[in-house]
Amino acid sequence: MKPNKLCASCNKPASVFQSHSGRFLCRDCFIRYVERQIRKTITKYNLIENKDLICIGVSGGKDSLVMLYNLYQRQSRIKNTNKIKVIWIDEGIIGYREESKNNLLSFLSKFKIDVDLIKLSFRENFGMTLDEMVEIIRKENLKLNPCSVCGTIRRRLLNDAAKDNNATKLAIGHNLDDTVQTLILNLLRNDLFKVGSVKPHTSNSNPLFDIRKEFIQRIKPLIRLTDEEISMYCYFMDIPFQSNPCQYSETFPILRRDVQSFINTLSRRSHEIKYNLLKVNYELIEILRSPKKIAKKFGRCKKCNYFTGPKRDICLYCEYKSLFGL
Ligand code: SF4
Ligand code: ZN
């Protein structure tokens, strides 16, 4: 960033450029921006109520630590609220999780965060470490991706632990990047059903069975923050987070990485793309929930009576015609 730029909020020397808003911000205003986004997401979607018992899945990575810090601050301001419970899972990946455990412990003591810590492991709670499973996958040439196996087991253990601890909410550190990648992945896999699950909270009603008894409602307070913003926040706040990538994210090609680099390339050209995808996601959820609403998404062109967008008087086809003098 060029020096001598001033913060758009307070006029002090800026430290960061926010490409999606086109604003320069100083350290303090940037920190306030991030914390406001988290508060706004919680309020807008009513993610947390005072009586909630919150379990947080913490890996030791930047997203989960930022979420824990902010939820802890929020809960500390509320009287007679339940103590937060942190669930930490050791997948059994040699040389990987040790760093994150140390980070988590030093983070808790540095910021004086007092939570109940629930430690789980793939070995004890599932029966085998991920390293052992990968060995079998390799030996037997199974068509399995370690990340898919890892994610499935981790989601299950998190939900079960939250349920066993009487949690009413399970907070997950998914950020904007994770969310829009998942949207594109679900579309590429022709899985419209899953598209409906990517929102700041999972559904707490389902006509087929009483979902509340089966699944603890998952909330995602970081859904409006990018990967980059969360890293920057950690840097400014001096939050130590896991820096070593997991070896399997490198050795096994996964579609998510390709989608990530595709979206990031597009975002460099058009900064609002991630936010547009998030909005598209919400629109899709609405459409998928109520087929009648699809009709409302269309209007009719005043020139040719063809279907057009609801906010358009004439369709794009007619607009091009008149543009080209036809
Ligand atoms: Fe699990 Fe894949 Fe993440 Fe490694 S990169 S911890 S295997 S999901
Ligand atoms: Zn400022």
Give descriptors for this structure.
326 residues; alpha/beta; Rossmann fold; 2 domains; 5-stranded parallel sheet; two-stranded antiparallel sheet; binds iron/sulfur cluster; binds zinc ion
Strand portion? 5-15%
What is the CATH T-level topology of the largest domain? Answer: Rossmann fold
CATH class category label of the largest domain: Alpha Beta
Mean pLDDT: 87
Specify the CATH homologous superfamily of the largest domain. Answer: HUPs
What proportion of the residues is helical, as a percent range?
40-55%
Structural class: alpha/beta
Distance between the termini: 48 Å
- CATH architecture descriptor text of the largest domain: 3-Layer(aba) Sandwich
The general outline is globular
Cα-atom Rg, whole angstroms?
22 Å
Q: What's the total helix number? A: 15
Number of strands: 9
Present as ligands are:
iron/sulfur cluster, zinc ion
Domains, number = 2
Q: Within the largest sheet, what's the order of strands?
A: 5-4-3-6-7
Give me the strand/helix succession: EEHEHEHEHHHEHHHEHHHHHEEH
Largest sheet: 5 strands, parallel
Description:
- This protein has 326 residues and is α/β, with parallel strands linked by helices.
- The protein folds into 2 domains: 1-36, no CATH class; 45-292, HUPs (Rossmann fold, 3-Layer(aba) Sandwich), CATH 3.40.50.620.
- Helix content is 50%, strand content 10%.
- The chain contains 15 helices and 9 strands.
- The protein has helices at 27-44, 62-76, 97-110, 122-126, 130-139, 146-164, 176-188, 192-195, 211-214, 227-237, 247-251, 255-269, 273-289, 292-296, 316-323, and strands at 16-18, 23-25, 54-57, 85-90, 116-121, 169-171, 218-219, 299-300, 307-308.
- Helix 7 (176-188) crosses helix 12 and helix 7 crosses helix 13 (273-289).
- The radius of gyration is 22 Å and the shape is globular.
- Bound molecules: iron/sulfur cluster (SF4) and zinc ion.
- Iron/sulfur cluster is lined by residues 91, 146-147, 150-151, 246, 248-249.
- Iron/sulfur cluster (SF4) binds next to helix 6 and helix 11.
